[in-house]
Amino acid sequence: MKLGVFTPLFAKLSLEQMLRKVQAAGLDAVELGAGGFPGADHLDVEGLLASADRARDFRALIADHGLIVSALSCHGNPLHPDPDIARRDDAILRRTVRLAERLEVPVVITFSGCPGDSDTARIPNWITSPWPPEMLQTLEWQWNEKAIPYWREATADAREHGIRIALEPHPNFIVHNVDTALRLRAAAGDHLGVNLDPSHMLWRGVDMPQAIRALGPAIFHFHAKDVAVDRANTAVNGVIDGRSYRDIAQRAWSFRSVGHGHDLLVWKQIMQALRVAGYDYVVSLEHEDALMSTEQGFQTAIDTLKLALLREAADEPWWT
């Protein structure tokens, strides 16, 4: 597996400054924002789409730094009940797929989106319980009338351009765990998979090696981000928490740099599970740790992941 980084944490750096920094850190890959929630700080999306020469020069610049682009990310909500937001995020996704084709990047990452509770809704409605009865009825309407039709068509479009779509399972979106990811993949086809980020699952009690085993070939990309659960706060209120991410002292859980929520053994087990599942692509570290500076979070994550990854292939056993 290769080690990379999701580059919005270096948004203040120019493209070349960022590439030099990543290269100096000994990494192999960059994951670039192309719009939506991560923005597009290191990509001139329209310029690259308009000029094959600029796209060729961009690919050469990445290669000259000894790197690859593992994915283009455009996290958004193309199922949003507000039609203006849905159209905007759908357009960003389609544009990113075409840019990925031009830049020879195999994966586009986004969210599955979340509809409202009816065609007249204006705000997404993430349903997590089947009762009262109208909740389950609404959830099935969201799947059958919104999510499945949209992602069947969007996945088919991406397939025509040779691109795989990796949905990041995330709370507040219709794909938020293994079960929902596999349900949508079964409906939309095998060009739809996941960008797996343990930080969105560990606080809900998911055993990541078992989740990885269940997902198997549906894992197209992997985010390395940790989460720390505050046992004192969860003992009182549980893990469902709507407080601001900045209210760390009172929150049930907070995002942390790799190794600062779960120890090295847990991360070794996660990396081992990825290998056993056949994943041999990029582990892309993501920094959203409010207790660490960018530099500190970046370096500590690298140090932990290098220990966990076992980057050199093991010797062949004597008994083979």
UniProtKB/TrEMBL annotation:
Boundaries of every Xylose isomerase-like TIM barrel domain copy: 19-306
Keyword line: Isomerase
Pfam families: AP_endonuc_2
Molecular function as annotated in GO: isomerase activity
Protein's UniProt keywords contain Isomerase: yes
InterPro entries: IolE/XylAMocC-like, Xyl_isomerase-like_sf, Xyl_isomerase-like_TIM-brl
Identification of the protein by name: Sugar phosphate isomerase/epimerase
Species of the source: Lysobacter gummosus
